[in-house]
Request: fold
Amino acid sequence: MEPVSNPDLALLLATGTGDLSACADEAALRVWNTRYFGEKGEMVAAMKKLPTLPPTERKGYGQEANRVKLQLGEAYGKALEAESEKALLASVNATPLDITLPGRPPRRGNLHPATKMMREIYGIFADMGFQVFRTREVEDDETNFELLNMPPHHPARDMWDTFHTTTPGVLLRTHTSPGQIHVMKQFCPGPIRAVLPGMCYRFEAISTRSEIQFQQVEGLAIGEGVTMADLKGTIGAFARRLFGQERQVRFRSSYFPFTEPSIEVDIDWPKEDPNADRLTKGTGWLEIMGAGMIHPTVLRNGGYDPEKVSGFAFGMGPQRIAMLRHAIDNIRLFWGNDLRFLSRF
Ligand code: DAH
Reply:
């Protein structure tokens, strides 16, 4: 900027600048601003002098006055900015910011324990070449019972307490076994290796061990020359993958109308587990599923010729398995929607 030659204006610039640098805080700066730039301030007063001057001096004075105004205005702006930065720094130093504190983590949801269990089971069977095949939850009596070798009034039906709908013959499936009929009809006469997961329903008194809804995973393999040895090998491999390589598997003979012969499968429970006695009722063995060689009548109902092919099937309750795994003592927790329970998994 050019120097200011008018002595009054030069003085105004010098005192204005000097006063500004003497301001210690923002309040002082504001007072300074009123004093120099307010309605009755020094700058206005300097401008008012203009008409009193001889006309030849007015132009030069006016230009210089404007320069002074500009210079003081800029200096004020800078001082104000510096002051607010200083104030910010002071407040930061007064309450130090601990940047080592961990941030607030975003809340993440998690999969339902039943979903996790199901996925783990699918994974193990997928490795053995089984595909996942879903079938309906609302079934007809024919598929849920009759085609599985349980004609009306067959005493074996007593094993399943059933929810019937108001439409005769339509019910909520009591097990995933009717899925066997659906998958057979779809793949017949080709070979099958599939697991059939899903929700099942039974009209039961709800207790810590029984619910009116629960999941099952059915499995079946059909082809030429499928034998009981294949069943044992498959289930043994599955149980050891799920519960540990050191686990032993025991097969007991049993009865189901849709398999012949029928078995139930137990695994030995680690004796070190303090719950072992309670879980195994003192036997050391724990039942995990029913299974068997598919009954010739059932094969025929699915469209296969039992003279040509054979197959095995099994059915298990993943909620029971999850209960064993995680020492969950109440089956009602699975569908109770209590987040305190669900968020633990
Ligand atoms: N459906 C039977 C139940 O709910 C379980 C079962 C047993 C399934 C033997 C099978 C099987 O496929 O072969 O109790």
About this structure: The mean pLDDT is 93. The pocket of 3,4-dihydroxyphenylalanine is lined by residues 175, 177, 218, 256, 259, 290-292, 313-315 (CB under 6 Å). The CA atoms of residues 225 and 329 lie 42 Å apart. DSSP finds twelve helices and nine strands in the chain.
